[in-house]
Amino acid sequence: MAGNTFGQLFRISTFGESHGIAIGVILDGCPAQLPIDLDFIQSELDKRKPGQSKITTQRKESDTVQILSGVFEGKSTGTPIAMLIPNEDQRSKDYSHNTDVYRPSHADYTYDAKYGIRDHRGGGRSSARETAARVAAGAIAKLLLKHHGIEIFAHVSSVGTIKAPNLQSNDVAELLAVREENIVRCADPATAHQMIEFIDGIRKDGDTVGGKVSCIIKNCPVGLGEPVFDKLHADLGKAMLSINAVHGFEYGSGFEGSEMRGSEHNDVFLATNGEGEPKTLTNFSGGIQGGIANGMEINFTVAFKPVATIMHNQQTINAAGEAAEIKGKGRHDPCVVPRAVVIVEAMAALVLADHLLRNKVSRVF
Amino acid sequence: MAGNTFGQLFRISTFGESHGIAIGVILDGCPAQLPIDLDFIQSELDKRKPGQSKITTQRKESDTVQILSGVFEGKSTGTPIAMLIPNEDQRSKDYSHNTDVYRPSHADYTYDAKYGIRDHRGGGRSSARETAARVAAGAIAKLLLKHHGIEIFAHVSSVGTIKAPNLQSNDVAELLAVREENIVRCADPATAHQMIEFIDGIRKDGDTVGGKVSCIIKNCPVGLGEPVFDKLHADLGKAMLSINAVHGFEYGSGFEGSEMRGSEHNDVFLATNGEGEPKTLTNFSGGIQGGIANGMEINFTVAFKPVATIMHNQQTINAAGEAAEIKGKGRHDPCVVPRAVVIVEAMAALVLADHLLRNKVSRVF
Amino acid sequence: MAGNTFGQLFRISTFGESHGIAIGVILDGCPAQLPIDLDFIQSELDKRKPGQSKITTQRKESDTVQILSGVFEGKSTGTPIAMLIPNEDQRSKDYSHNTDVYRPSHADYTYDAKYGIRDHRGGGRSSARETAARVAAGAIAKLLLKHHGIEIFAHVSSVGTIKAPNLQSNDVAELLAVREENIVRCADPATAHQMIEFIDGIRKDGDTVGGKVSCIIKNCPVGLGEPVFDKLHADLGKAMLSINAVHGFEYGSGFEGSEMRGSEHNDVFLATNGEGEPKTLTNFSGGIQGGIANGMEINFTVAFKPVATIMHNQQTINAAGEAAEIKGKGRHDPCVVPRAVVIVEAMAALVLADHLLRNKVSRVF
Amino acid sequence: MAGNTFGQLFRISTFGESHGIAIGVILDGCPAQLPIDLDFIQSELDKRKPGQSKITTQRKESDTVQILSGVFEGKSTGTPIAMLIPNEDQRSKDYSHNTDVYRPSHADYTYDAKYGIRDHRGGGRSSARETAARVAAGAIAKLLLKHHGIEIFAHVSSVGTIKAPNLQSNDVAELLAVREENIVRCADPATAHQMIEFIDGIRKDGDTVGGKVSCIIKNCPVGLGEPVFDKLHADLGKAMLSINAVHGFEYGSGFEGSEMRGSEHNDVFLATNGEGEPKTLTNFSGGIQGGIANGMEINFTVAFKPVATIMHNQQTINAAGEAAEIKGKGRHDPCVVPRAVVIVEAMAALVLADHLLRNKVSRVF
User: Which Pfam families match (chains A, B, C, D) (predicted)?
Assistant: First the structure.
């Protein structure tokens, strides 16, 4: 109820502050007998961790995950899986100058106003560090989805005004390989090169820039999604909007769809004549109709605002409402999207895993 | 769990199919002693009902609401408020030709695939008729918000490629008056005229077109929103995405924000020197920081795809997967946004009412 | 959250006051394609309705149920099933003398204290009339359980100090037939006769008396129940304790078990040698071990206090805290257990149906 | 949903197996600014830990708790409070002989049947060791309740057939002092002496015995409890029934109340004439009417079956259903109630804290 739990049947509860002892997550509802591959979980965390490249923050965290419960002899037991990620690089002193000052476009003021108390060290709970716990749990969700043949792939589709072309492949393994070859995590190598140059310039300016992450889900079983409120895209949208810095979500035809006519937007069904499941000629529906997956590729895009921490001095106020200046120093990400790709995938995986379970009780037979 | 409940503390459960006996809603968690103005609830429903003008469907429904419980001598009692809206214009025969055919970009196929059974009369549960129940409950949410001084205003900000300019007033009552003077519900009269002409042309073509609804929330108390998952904008986003035909949501700087730099996007705080609550110079944050309302105006935009029901014959398939043709006949909305304005407001009100209550338990003192 | 919803996956939300327009229930999560037998639902309600015999209240209510949604051509569609039971005998004037007076051991005072407003007509929401909605939903739960071969049987096992012997049959149909042959709903005819005589005397005294209802569940699948908090008996216990007038719950060895030694209480497993599921020699566990059904018969007992409405004049206070007298008049049940039998069964069925669905997602394979 | 979460607004999620790395809990929803006294939390755990006396198991666990998050400079921050209790005495080998054998009246068989996999070391998740996490969270609940003046006190009211007299004091501090002076935790020293002798004899027999814990709650605010399903006693009942080995729950007049007449059972209100809140002459209602606290002392009793682990050899079966013998060895509690007292208090505190928060949103004014 206090907002730190996500999912209904495949449900996570996260905890932890940026500069506390540890962050972590309890995953409750993972079905029993799922093989749990700790190396895979760690590899997912490695894609989110800071210090990966010149275009990510230089904060050092190994983000080593430990499983405390719920796994026995390599398999889930049906009991809660608790995972712990100790905080290592707790340079709290870096943040001592912020104790009494509200950083612009951060959550300093709103946390103080809401709770009357604030762990000011590195943003505390409002830090994107919290998303590491989501990635750990999302990795287990991916293992469950993989078991059902479902694949999720996200990449950086824009940085500032630099946009990647549409995906050139339907092969997720191939896309993944291409994406991981560049530090910005764009599936188009040429665009990736431009993006990296651009972000590096932004970094040298001490500034930041926004971007977009696009995601596809392949082999989603027909039927996932629970109308009328828990439509599949509504739950995906909430999941994405709950990620730090996200300001927008669209699926299928998205915002452009609002400019289209019905006669062009309608996805015409192709006759199957009994061979396999129905497909549609176009996919403006983004793989979801009436809130329920229709078996076509699910696709959506997530817009991230520029990171608020910049290396410029900024005017602001302190807790007393008096004018104050905040110094531009410390470590920061010039652009969050390269590290956000795996967070988007993790949240998508959590939504899918949840709806996979929920759909198991939709029929008597 | 099956998706027909929305909200945590101020919680609605809706029921009903398009052509069944009635639709309705139970609102559980409305605090006691709230004056319940039935006329206001009905007036909200009247803004959503079909048959209002030449640019809405000609289906006739008075959408008369009846309160069955939870209100005594004009006030809420703290017990569940059940509201019933009988279906009047149940011309089921209009839909008999659709019994075995999947209409393109409707939910016919996905409902059948998910449940193995489908009430095919007018879309059954997947019909936007269900949103009448949301509007009724949302009206009570508005009464609660009004009690706390919170105002919500939405209008049609685009139809197809016709876009309205930014709002010219901060006075919600004035905006509302302007909006209700035109049948498309746009707060800019000149744009409204263009939109109406355009939609009427679309209607004559037997086609449909998408559009956008923009919404502002004024006087939202600082502190509403529950990080990390139930961020205020995440819950707003889910609420909007759960409305039929919505394909996108953005708040604050939205998708454009992804192209900006941090140095221009950051909302600088203005010194209060002890006078009132902090304000920011700009509002790219859209009134929400770290998922918590910061006291500035909340604003967001919702993209609607074009209505799938068109008056053209279309190729499709039947339940056996065989090619079939669907005839363009019956009654339909050429553009859904004029009627969607009040649905957007209702869902926003439900989210705000819920978070208003949730925030009451955030502190010991 | 406000307490009017029960169940997780098979979930009901009830509404309505004793003397309002109607009471009712939304059942969300009933799996699609379940045949819905309206006659059976009505027959269950008939067992709870007032005015059945000389030992129940003479209030007249036909308790005729109407299904508003969620059922199409005789089967559940997977969408919410709303059911309505209009209130007919709304003699509000009978209760006008109670407007300002708190009846002893009723909920008049606590509702007023909690909500600051109270529908005083016949107890409003606190009336046991609300349980009719549970019985209607419970009937559908029974249909789902029947589909899985699960049987539930309850009867009056004591009235005052008159106790029935242990059940003499394992045949639920037979037990049911015997039970329904007497108006007190005890499966032992001789004891039933004593109970009826006793209650009739109590009634003539204008007094009331408590009693107990015992319930068995046969053919419960092994595995139902979700440790550690949602143990099957914990959910059964909550379900029973939520029924008006219930003051105690025990299962298996119950309170007597607290006097036993482990060496006598342990239920020894019998070797199956591969033939069928394990059984135990004794069943002090009441069919549940570690919160999970073990396949043996589930049994529990529920204690009801005497009804608070008596035909004697009683000293009490009014809302101002001043001494007042309450007159003994109106219609009342001298003993609630004969009508409570079907409520106990309904709540048990709702718990079982919920856990049946919940258990479907406990394993990957 | 999978059963490891308890509470709605003041909500805990526990994790961990008996012989895993650690057990722990996330408490979400603790209001901000509550002083968190770690020493008090530890002192509560010390009352539950094994190895306290000759009548408890000799397993050695310091049960040292660590707070990982949610507390800053000694106060709650409104973010999740995670607590970790490492397992120290992990003598898994003690349990290796049980790998393939189902111990009678344990959860070995049902966990295996439900999940198809089982952590057999010391009962895994089904071990009462899990309750340590509840005690830690319950201690924080007690701190919140103390802040509101609410006191909870439980003690051992019976062991086997040895029953303690009614409490001789209304002073919780005094009762607590008396209780803690004896190792069985009975508030009556003379009875305590008898109980200890009896349990010691049982222990020497290698046997176990059941008992009862009774609990009172003082200064509970009028209004707590959420009808109709989340009645205060229904939530207390579920809380107690979720504790390992509990087979029964009663409040107020309890099972005896089923034998009483209304004319004797009704709690007559005493006139206040404007001085303070209404009181009743008797308290058969146990401080709760219509599911809502009425300001009188809340009281209830919990029945525990005898511990299943005995030092006798027992006949049983293995996973193949073949006859097997289980050896009586290892460490065990001859009677669970002395250590259960603080668990009962913790669960009661969690229920009260939850309802305290829930009641904050029951009225507009």
Answer: Chorismate_synt
